[in-house]
Structure formats: C-alpha cells, structure tokens
C-alpha cells in the first residue's frame, strides 16, 4: 500500500526535505541513486518524487494528486515513465537497449522523461556500461532514478554521475506503531523490532508460532541461569538443542539472549528504558539490582564469543555448555 505524504515525512524526514528542496529550487539532476535497506520507503518516495516532477499543479512542493499526470502516475500508465526490473538475476543489456530506444521515440508526450532502475546493483557488466554512457550523455529532459539496497555493488563510475540520496533505517517507534496497528501485542512488537527494521519481515516474525516459541524458550533459559548452572544445562539439553536444530535458528536464539542482557544493562542505567522484552521488566529489574555492570558486560561478551564459536562450526552442545558455565561465572544468584 502506497504511503501518503505525511507518512513519508515521518518515515524519511531528511530525504523528503532534500527532494522537496531540489524541486522548489528547480535544481533537478539528471540522475539519482536512492540507497537504503528494504523497508525504508525507497519505492514509495520514488513514486512521490516522480509524481512531483510531472504534476501539473504542485502545491507547497507536494503533488496535487488530482491532475491527469498524477492519476496516470498512480495507475502506472504515464507514457513518459519507464521502470526496469531484473530479468532473473540481472538487468540485462537487451532490457537497457529497449529502454534507450523507448526514451528516444518520437511521439512520446512532451515534458520530462523518467526511467527507474529497480535493484540497480544487479546491472550486469554490459548493461552497466550502456547505462553509464547514457548517464554521461543525457539527451533533453531525462531523469534517472536508481534504487539499490547494495550501493557497494553499483559501479563507482555510475555512482559518481548520480546525486546520492541515503535512506535511513525506519525509526523504531514507527515500526512499533505499524505492528500494533496490525494487532501485534506490544511485547512481541518490541522484540521483533529489535531483530529487523523491515515491516513485512517483522510482521511475519510476529505471526510465526515458531518464533513465539523461540522467544519463550530463550526467556526460560534466562530464568534458569538465575537459579543455578544445573537448571541452565537442563534447559539447554531438553529445550534449546531439540528446538534450535539449524545454525540460523541458534544464531537467532543467541541474538535474543543477548538482547535480554542488553535489556538488563539498560534497565540498570535507566529503569524507564525501552526494552526488547517489556513483559519481563520486573524480573529484569531484580537481576539488574543484584548485578554489577562488570558482571553483565562479561555475560554479554560470553554470548558474543558463543556466536563466534558457532561461526567456526564448533559442536553446538559443547558451545552451549561452555556458554552456561561462562554466564554462571558472571551470575550473583548462585
């Protein structure tokens, strides 16, 4: 669903101000790169910018939404707009050649022509060189917008000929609000928003029973660690190892465990701090009260070391047993 201007201003205030100022001062460049992670609003803001450039009656640097051009942009039927997507793994030279031919055609409407390259990092060598030639020798009123999540994969020579627009990660409070609007309970929304900044992925995790069980299992281990090492080992062998069978599942579980200890440190510094697990606030306050920063720092370091051991393909049972011993050393509830 395309976001309205107010939502885009909340999502990317700096980018929106930048593009509106460019339009207001009539300083439109012939090429832009929109660089940002998935979920940062690149496609929606591209749509806004295209509409603004073509709108017949813009007001306060916002498209009117009602003129013929605005309606045609929304419907995807404006003849001066051309959008290119990868064909399989790459954007191929035949696609670029066809695009260039369309842009040079006589009979296309007067006014600015705009072409958009989605996943511009997936131009192959030949198509990248052809685009580069076009960027070096633009003909008439033509604007290119290149969208990418992998700026380092775009040729430096292409990057140098485009105005660079950097999209920031979605503000966490915006993601939390969107999740709660989709009926995700606040505690679960807080957790998934720490794991991903992308709304669709966050919503998937929030509705995934397996993830809910993983969250519960991780918090159960935190409780066991506060009792004694034997209880912790029991949870590892009876619940963690049977549940987290794949490497990526254990990685996620270790991340969730690390977030629990980060919560405890945050609460120790500020009892009103925003948490990954707000439903465990009272329990974490009790741990924070009986722990020093040095102990908590050692416990977080132990989890990070376990993560590294996992990368080196250390035996998972041994890695988790060693982690329990290291976490217990930093624990005062023995």
UniProtKB/TrEMBL annotation:
Reactions the enzyme catalyzes: DNA(n) + a 2'-deoxyribonucleoside 5'-triphosphate = DNA(n+1) + diphosphate
Pfam families xref list: DNA_pol3_delta2, DNApol3-delta_C
DNA polymerase III delta subunit C-terminal domain mapped to chain residues: 241-328
First-level EC class: transferase
Keywords linked to the UniProt accession: DNA replication, DNA-directed DNA polymerase, Nucleotidyltransferase, Transferase
Positions of transmembrane segments: none
Listed InterPro entries: DNA_pol_HolB, DNA_pol_III_delta_C, DNA_Rep/Repair_Clamp_Loader, P-loop_NTPase
Enzyme Commission identifier(s): 2.7.7.7
NCBIfam families tied to this protein: holB (TIGR00678), PRK08058.1 (NF005972)
Protein name stated in the entry: DNA polymerase III subunit delta'
Organism encoding this protein: Lysinibacillus piscis
Organism placement in taxonomy: Bacteria, Bacillati, Bacillota, Bacilli, Bacillales
């Amino acid at each position: 669903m395309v976001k309205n201007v107010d939502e885009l201003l909340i999502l990317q205030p700096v980018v929106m101000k930048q593009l509106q100022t460019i339009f207001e001062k009539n300083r439109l460049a012939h090429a832009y790169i929109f660089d940002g992670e998935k979920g940062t609003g690149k496609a929606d803001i591209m749509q806004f910018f295209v509409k603004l450039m073509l709108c017949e009656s813009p007001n306060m640097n916002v498209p009117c939404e009602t003129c013929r051009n605005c309606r045609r942009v929304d419907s995807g039927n404006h003849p001066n707009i051309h959008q290119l997507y990868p064909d399989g793994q790459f954007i191929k030279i035949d696609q670029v050649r066809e695009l260039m031919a369309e842009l040079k055609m006589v009979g296309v409407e007067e006014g600015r022509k705009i072409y958009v390259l989605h996943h511009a990092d997936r131009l192959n060598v030949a198509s990248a060189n052809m685009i580069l030639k076009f960027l070096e020798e633009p003909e008439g009123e033509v604007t290119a917008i290149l969208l990418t999540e992998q700026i380092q994969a775009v040729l430096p020579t292409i990057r140098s000929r485009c105005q660079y627009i950097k999209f920031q990660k979605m503000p966490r409070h915006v993601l939390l609000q969107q999740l709660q609007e989709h009926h995700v309970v606040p505690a679960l929304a807080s957790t998934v928003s720490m794991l991903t900044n992308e709304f669709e992925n966050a919503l998937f995790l929030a509705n995934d029973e397996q993830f809910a069980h993983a969250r519960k299992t991780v918090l159960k281990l935190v409780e066991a660690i506060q009792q004694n090492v034997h209880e912790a080992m029991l949870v590892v062998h009876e619940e963690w190892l049977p549940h987290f069978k794949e490497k990526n599942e254990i990685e996620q579980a270790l991340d969730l465990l690390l977030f629990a200890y980060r919560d405890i440190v945050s609460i120790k510094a500020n009892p009103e701090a925003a948490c990954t697990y707000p439903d465990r606030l009272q329990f974490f306050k009790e741990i924070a009260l009986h722990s020093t920063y040095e102990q908590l720092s050692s416990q977080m370091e132990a989890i990070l070391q376990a993560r590294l051991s996992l990368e080196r393909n250390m035996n998972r049972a041994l890695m988790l047993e060693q982690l329990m011993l290291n976490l217990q050393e930093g624990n005062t509830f023995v």
